[in-house]
Amino acid sequence: MNAPRTILLSRPDSIGDVMLTLPMAGLLRQRFPGVRIVFLGRGYTAPVLRCCRYVDEILTLEELEALSDDGAVEVLKHVNADAVVHVFPHRKVAQWCRNARIPLRIGTTNRWWHWLTCNTRVPFSRRRSDLHEAQLNINLLRPFGITEIPALDALAQLSGFAAPLPDDVVNGLLRSDRRNIILHPLSKGSAVEWGMDHFTELIQLLDTQRYQVIITGTEQEAARYRTALPMHLAHVTDAGGKLGLDRLIQLIGASDALVAASTGPLHIAAACGIRAIGLYSPKRPIHPGRWSPIGKDAVALVAEGVDPEGDPLSHIRAITPQQVLSRLER
Hints:
The protein is of the alpha/beta class. Helices cover 36% and strands 17% of the residues. The longest helix is centred in the first third of the chain and has 11 residues, at 69-79. The protein starts with 5 loop residues before the first strand and ends with a helix.
């Protein structure tokens, strides 16, 4: 096929999902060095996209939804894309792209509306596959002649992600004489959580002379953890509700490690190259084979000897604070 000039990647989805989609942009740029990548995401993921050197322009679902259907179509026409890849199926976006007459419209065969809106459909099942989410996304690039699925370490190097340098606000949370460890105890319901008692024990295990512990989360999450975690300890700093996503990315990039369940901040930490310790259940479809963080110092912890068909909460709870501490101290 002729080299495309502009490709639209559509994933109006959560932060973690977007992070695992960024290697697609890197792989497309590798295949077509001069291609312009436009990414359609949700507004709150825009700070993530701004950190990817392979994303040239950002559109948000919210700005398109604020327009009439005809207005959204006109915006997409002005993108002048040669192709759109519907990484996350969204019926309205697919209709807009069809009406904008984007020449190559790629989706999966698993959404009925793609049979009406896409002219190229790729058959594969995420649910039944043993591939990682980042690898599954690459299936959608087959129409561009990209048929080989890269290994996870290769995909990690293709994310093009780099955190900005910390500003004064973020620097005020860090200690230059300590290892700065971020604990992100909650997930807004997107993942099975480890429990406040385990995070409390981990905080108490961390040497106060070696570690600075920074607790992160939204203001609503902070209202929960402030009454459950030992926030009074001298080596603990509360950043809950104090940072927008831009500054959270800065903080993660400037820290030494992060501990969390399968959440967006975990995937950001992995892409930044810091030690990213994820807490996982082996149960499908939430197991680390599908959703582990990818990066040069990322690890997915799973308790040993648990029944993969058992209760995910008991799986996560079976991971001990000592196991996490061991990973932090390696």
